[in-house]
């Protein structure tokens, strides 16, 4: 069976039938709107010669402009537009990546900077923390207008992101050490920091390799008589991710039996994700029980009110069988007609 929004095996459950259990909404009864989970980002960047800062989803959707450096060659403050970084403070939703659109107008080229989110370690520019793609669009020049949001979103969605090939530490000439940036803020560019770059005719889009604002974490503590596997994914079964399962076989590790002690799993759900538990029995009494600490601080427990179920495909992995594949579950969940749970009992 599969379950959604409730708990426990159904009274009409078929013997040795796979079950899957899912809560209807991981964050709440309705999906959490992705623009509501905000965090404050503190960022400082500079570029030789120009850049603009944005945040948005990894594919370039929801792209939002934050700010840019000086439009001309002179700094304000600083001698040159790259001499001192600009600092920005802004709210960005969970899962957001940072984007830099940068272009050169003469001689050498680079971007450098860092950002921090409250409760997280600062992230500096480097060949591992940022990716880039060179665009064929015209170089905006000085005091060039920024590319349109729509164009940047389209280019980001189809981009073949690559790590920057050129990287050099603070102190590298001709820039030296940029005041206001940490020594960790590496000078980076797609091909070369030297004067002749293939990007001179266009502009470069940089994107953080990982989300700048991480998704809130959740944890699930679960056991089953006899077996279960835990997944997250969308309501229709798309984007399923396997989290973990309990012991194969009958013995616990630790514990006398595979159901004697629960396992605890930590995971970072996407906004609007659902939680799925796939459970199967080896004979005798059967159940699963558990609780989930949600990112908003609330706790979801196994019960007959918050979960519902649907039967699986009729096969049973058995005591030593592998957890069902995400492809199989995606198909079954997509066609599921969810039912209320008919059997539930308290712990003890």
Q: What profile does the largest beta sheet have? A: 5 strands, antiparallel
- Average pLDDT for all residues: 84
What is the count of β-strands? 22
User: What gap, in angstroms, lies between the N and C termini?
Assistant: 24 Å
The secondary-structure class comes to mainly beta
Helix content: under 10%
Global shape: elongated
Q: Would you identify the regions where 5 or more consecutive residues have pLDDT less than 50?
A: 4-36
Order of helices and strands: EEEEEEEEEEHEEEEEEEEEEEHE
- Individual helix count: 2
Q: Tell me the strand percentage band.
A: 35-45%
What does this structure look like?
By secondary structure, the protein is mainly beta. It folds into two domains: 2-33 and 216-340, Jelly Rolls; 38-208, no CATH class. The protein contains two helices and 22 strands. It has a five-stranded antiparallel β-sheet, covered by helices on one side. Strands 1, 2, 21 and 22 form a four-stranded mixed β-sheet that branches. A hairpin with a 7-residue loop joins strand 4 and strand 5 (64-68). The two termini are 24 Å apart. 41% of the residues are buried. Residues 4-36 have low confidence and may be disordered.
């Amino acid at each position: 069976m599969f379950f959604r929004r409730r708990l426990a095996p159904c009274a009409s459950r078929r013997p040795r039938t796979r079950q899957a259990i899912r809560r209807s909404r991981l964050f709440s009864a309705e999906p959490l709107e992705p623009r509501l989970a905000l965090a404050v980002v503190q960022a400082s960047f500079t570029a030789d010669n120009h850049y603009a800062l944005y945040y948005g989803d990894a594919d370039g959707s929801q792209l939002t402009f934050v700010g840019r450096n000086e439009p001309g060659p002179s700094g304000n403050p600083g001698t040159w537009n790259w001499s001192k970084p600009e600092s920005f403070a802004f709210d960005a939703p969970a899962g957001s990546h940072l984007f830099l659109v940068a272009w050169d107008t003469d001689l050498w080229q680079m971007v450098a900077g860092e950002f921090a989110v409250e409760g997280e370690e600062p992230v500096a520019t480097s060949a591992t923390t940022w990716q880039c793609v060179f665009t064929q669009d015209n170089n905006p020049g000085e005091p060039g207008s920024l590319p349109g949001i729509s164009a940047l979103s389209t280019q980001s969605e189809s981009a073949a992101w690559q790590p920057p090939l050129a990287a050099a530490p603070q102190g590298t000439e001709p820039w030296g050490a940029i005041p206001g940036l940490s020594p960790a803020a590496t000078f980076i560019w797609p091909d070369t920091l030297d004067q002749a770059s293939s990007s001179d005719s266009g502009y470069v889009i940089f994107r953080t390799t990982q989300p700048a604002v991480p998704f809130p974490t959740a944890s699930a503590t679960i056991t089953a008589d006899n077996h279960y596997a835990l997944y997250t994914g969308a309501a229709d079964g798309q984007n399923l991710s396997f989290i973990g399962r309990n012991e194969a076989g009958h013995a616990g590790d630790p514990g006398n039996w595979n159901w004697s002690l629960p396992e605890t799993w930590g995971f970072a759900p996407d906004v609007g994700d659902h939680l799925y538990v796939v459970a199967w029995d080896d004979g005798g009494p059967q159940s699963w029980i558990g609780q989930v600490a949600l990112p908003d601080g609330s706790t979801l427990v196994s019960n007959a009110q918050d979960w519902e179920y649907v039967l699986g495909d009729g096969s049973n992995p058995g005591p030593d069988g592998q957890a069902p594949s995400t492809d199989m579950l995606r198909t079954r969940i997509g066609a599921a007609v969810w039912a209320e749970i008919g059997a539930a009992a308290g712990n003890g």
